[in-house]
Design brief:
The chain is mainly beta. It has a domain of about 180 residues: Porin (Beta Barrel), CATH 2.40.160. About 5% of the residues lie in helices and about 60% in strands.
């Protein structure tokens, strides 16, 4: 428990410093231009006797046209995911550092960054270099980055190297993105990226895209097309020197008319995964094209994004049926590609297209009183990866006790059937929550899983936890969780991370000065 004491001491120190920093008479605020962010996570699993301490400390400084910063990272022990742990049980180092200069004004200028940086080209079809601490993703690059603008023209360009699972940065990534935003009716952009493998025996992989975005009256439209180049793949017998080695399409249409709205998305991802030559670093993450849910059980179903073998549609409607109430209906379907796709030909698969994921969701709401709102919902999902079918009815009630306080109760019941084994089981999730905006949130969550592996033999498992979150000030907040939590996958935008079952205490603190 030695790290628990360290964690609690740090909590008290930060709390003391933050509260006193608000007292102008003590003059303990940071020097002008200096910014500090600290993100701390501590957990102790009582059942497995496992203690994990994680901390990210950012220090940034900006003055005039110059900026600089570092991030010190500490993990003890490190994350079991090899993409995060970098082969080390204990890790403590400066994992991110940069220096930058910015010139010009809003009409014309530029920014140059040397060191570590992130970058996103539009919707991530070609480049998405980012950090997500929930998913433990950090594919930052080390190198040089440039952003420039001149009236309605914008340019991004960089050269950098990402760190692989053996703590090596040995592959260079070059990329550039150009965009025109001069017309109110249409914006257009071009992107190109190419890797330079460390081995001269491997061919470069390149992705090029063109995109358009348009808004008029009640409509928003976005469309992007991508092609992939790789001489090693093109010269295989399967492709027979085809001009390209893969292609991708993503489109999005939004319609808004008074209280009615509609979203329609389409994806076709055929061998457009852009990764390092060793396969450990992914450079692009296109849109997942499925609904994001706010309910726990509906988010339990992992549907990892496959940039090589997907074709799908997502439709989402918000339909007003009274002055204050909406009916939300969403439908999504994702299929694998046909045997004539680039990907299937390269891997030599004769398997034809099939449905890999299917979902249907509907919800509405009722104002049962001036302060009470009832929301019934139901979700239906079919997944080919897990061979399961699930049906999830949900009932949620929110009652506003004042302008700043509310209570929420939700009951989720999920029926699951495994198509391969015929097994059926149920999961119930009950949530009770008190929220005082924006400072306090108190939650009680209870989950029960019921299985019958043999006729007449019922097995039930329970998980219960209490969570308290408090915002001390605009600059400091913390939360504590105590209890047990079910194992499962966390998925955001089609990228998933498995979280094991947990029984113990978790502490999270965030400071920004």
């Amino acid at each position: 428990m030695r790290y628990l004491s360290r964690c609690l001491i740090l909590l008290l120190f930060i709390n003391f410093f933050q509260l006193h920093a608000q007292d102008e008479s003590l003059n303990t605020s940071l020097p002008e231009g200096l910014f500090l962010q600290n993100d701390l996570k501590y957990s102790f699993d009582i059942e497995n006797k496992r203690e994990i301490f994680e901390n990210w400390l950012n220090l940034d400084y900006q003055t005039s046209i110059f900026s600089a910063g570092i991030r010190y990272e500490f993990f003890q022990p490190n994350d079991p995911n090899p993409a995060v742990s970098r082969g080390k049980d204990r890790y403590g180092d400066i994992g991110f550092r940069y220096i930058g200069v910015s010139l010009g004004d809003a009409n014309s200028g530029g920014e140059i960054t040397a060191g570590n940086f992130y970058s996103l080209f539009s919707r991530g079809m070609v480049i998405k270099i980012y950090e997500d601490r929930t998913l433990r993703i950090d594919n930052n690059l080390s190198g040089m980055s440039f952003k420039g603008w001149y009236h309605d023209f914008y340019l991004k360009a960089f050269s950098g190297m990402a760190e692989n699972t053996v703590v090596a940065r040995n592959e260079i990534l070059h990329a550039a993105d150009f965009e025109y935003r001069g017309s109110e009716l249409i914006h257009a952009g071009l992107s190109y990226a190419s890797n330079q493998p460390s081995s001269s025996a491997l061919a470069r992989t390149g992705l090029a895209s063109v995109r358009v975005k348009s808004s008029w009256d009640y409509f928003d439209l976005y469309a992007e097309g991508v092609i992939k180049h790789n001489d090693d793949l093109r010269q295989t017998q399967a492709l027979n020197n085809d001009r390209i080695a893969g292609k991708g399409i993503y489109s999005n249409l939004n319609l808004y008319y008074k209280s009615f709205s509609m979203t329609a998305e389409y994806k076709l991802y055929d061998n457009i995964l852009f990764s390092s030559s060793d396969g450990t670093i992914v450079y692009n993450t296109p849109p997942g094209v499925r609904k994001d849910y706010s309910f726990g059980l509906l988010n339990r179903h992992p549907v990892p994004l496959d940039q090589n073998n997907e074709q799908g549609v997502h439709l989402d409607f918000n339909i007003p049926w009274s002055e204050h109430n909406l009916l939300n209906i969403a439908w999504s379907q994702t299929k694998t590609l046909s045997s004539m796709s680039y990907y299937k030909r390269i891997i030599g698969s004769p398997v034809e297209s099939s449905v890999s994921f299917h979902e249907l969701y509907a919800s509405t709401q009722f104002d049962v009183s001036l302060k009470g709102n009832l929301l019934p919902a139901v979700g239906y999902m079919e997944e080919d990866v897990t061979k399961t079918i699930s049906l999830t009815p949900i009932l949620q009630y929110i009652h506003k006790t004042s302008d700043f306080t509310s209570v929420r109760f939700s009951l989720e019941h999920q029926y699951i059937r495994n198509r391969s084994t015929g097994e059926r089981y149920y999961t119930d999730l009950l949530t009770a929550e008190f929220h005082r905006s924006p400072d306090i949130r108190v939650s009680l969550v209870s989950e029960m899983e019921t299985k019958e592996p043999e006729a007449g033999k019922t097995i039930r498992k329970f998980w219960n936890f209490f969570q308290f979150s408090y915002r001390v000030s605009e600059n400091y907040r913390f939360s504590i969780l105590a209890g047990s939590r079910q194992a499962g996958n966390i998925c955001i935008g089609g990228v998933c991370r498995y979280e094991p079952e947990f029984r113990g205490v978790e502490l999270r603190m965030f400071t920004s000065l």
